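As a warm-up, study this chain.
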Amino acid sequence: MEFVATEHIEHKLALLPGLPGCYLMKNENGKIIYVGKAKNLKNRVRSYFKSSHTGKTARLVSEIRDFETIITNTNKEAFLLEITLIQKYQPYFNIRLKQGTGYPYIKITNERDPMMKITGQIVKDGAYYFGPYPNVYAAEETMRFIQKVYPLRRCQGHLGRPCLYYHMGQCLGACFKEVPVAAYTAQIEKIKRFLNGQVGPIKQELTDKMQVAAAKMEFERAAELRDQIRYIEQTVERQKIISNDHTPRDIFNYYYDRGYVSIQVFFIRQARLMKREKHVLPIINEPEEALNTFISQFYRRKNNLPPKEILVPKSLDATSLEEVLDIPVRTPQRGEKRQLLALAKKNAKLVLEEKFRLMELDESKTLGAQDEIFDALGLPRGHKIEAFDHSHIMGQDPVSAMVVFEDGRPAKKLYRKYKLKGEVEHQNGADEAANTREVIRRRYSRLLKEHSDLPDLILMDGGEIELSAARDVLENELGLDQLPIAGMVKNDKHRTTALLFGPDDNIQPVALDHKSQGFYLLQRIQDEVHRFVITFHRKTHTKNSLSSQLEAIKGVGPKTRTKLLRQFGSLSKIREASLADIQALGIDKTTAQMIKLSLTPTTLSNK
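Now compare it with the structure written out below.
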């Protein structure tokens, strides 16, 4: 599909320089929706408006209403700037990786008496880190084996007496003596060799020790050594050795089709394939450029320990990557490394083909369904919907909640809960208009203050009262008169029927085909926000009810109530607690007895 650039964009295209730099694409609301880099800004940016496109690129171009450029001195500077801008603005159309990896590592601490730990936090503290491991269980199993074979320090140290681990042969004795630094250094070198895949020497050493123990008729010791040898055979040697050297390396390859790139990452540790990652991403630019950007972001994530070497296909700009990452980046020409690179590509292809089969089933239920809602309201198609609902009991404990759907899917990390002031209107319960004004004011004044992205559509669970109140705040208080908002209407049976939309003097129901995917999505949004707010209200009401009952007990003040609520959480658990349990919270005996007496049910009998 080819798009005709506006007059404004045509003027800006004519002024583009033929220099390296970054470009930022914006939609009609001025929101940055894509960041890219180029060796020649003039050629790259013009290509968006002077060529035919399909898929996600076509959708991007259809939403572009403006752009800006930032010139850099070199292509490397453009590379680095692009990653910085993506992390800052999180544009919708860019590849975005999670900030943390969640991988477990084995850590040998940097201190006088070092010890081993499992950690997910990589910091520059001089410690040794080994990994990543496929899961915490694998890391723990490996660490337990090392602690038995190559012990460091297991206790807190300086106890004045040998600890249990010392007697078990799993501590060098920092508990009661000064262990020479040389002893630790020797153990750490052995650990490093083992974790780098050199298991032959340790296996032979254990075999020799087992034979000596057996000859001395120390059968328990011999059995323990036998189990350690079996660990090596079952968990280390059973894994196929895929490299003749022990260099920690990461391997990247990709497969591209129909606007999607499938990326495979192999983590080679201890001369074995320790772990792999797979990503399938819709992309705007060429797959090679997308993979370059992906790899750059990959090593900017928290707790991601870079390897000693990175292998990539020959189509990538390895020189630029090496300059940016400061890690050797190579393309193998032959041998086992080339075979591993080919294997990564084969896996990437299989994953993408599976993705396409699933997408065919899912597309109409998500993105297509969301587009139906925007089309029914006569709005330009967007990506993000935020929906609100309230809950209270006759005006008591009023709360509100917001759910977020992006491209037809719930984005649960973006959900929010709100405790409201709850202005009561005589005897009629909560003032729904006041509650709506409060939550809309709090939500969108904060987004404006933080310069965060606004949604493409707001949905209020309710009728004209909620819709008018929300629009009043958006237009007259926050100046967001262009932010679309609609009401979700239910019938007497509490089932979704339609949307309310339009100015206050002409709010009209907008019907959706009740058999359409758009209507099903609307139902899901309304049910989800209702579920979320009801769950939140129940928890709030229960806690407030418990707090009020405790408040009636003589001698129980705010601090004591807080201690009880945090520790026990319910009246039944406080009733079940002993006096000692209550006193353990720092509550005096008299008050503890009063609490038990006040919360114990009274049994009446007729005599």
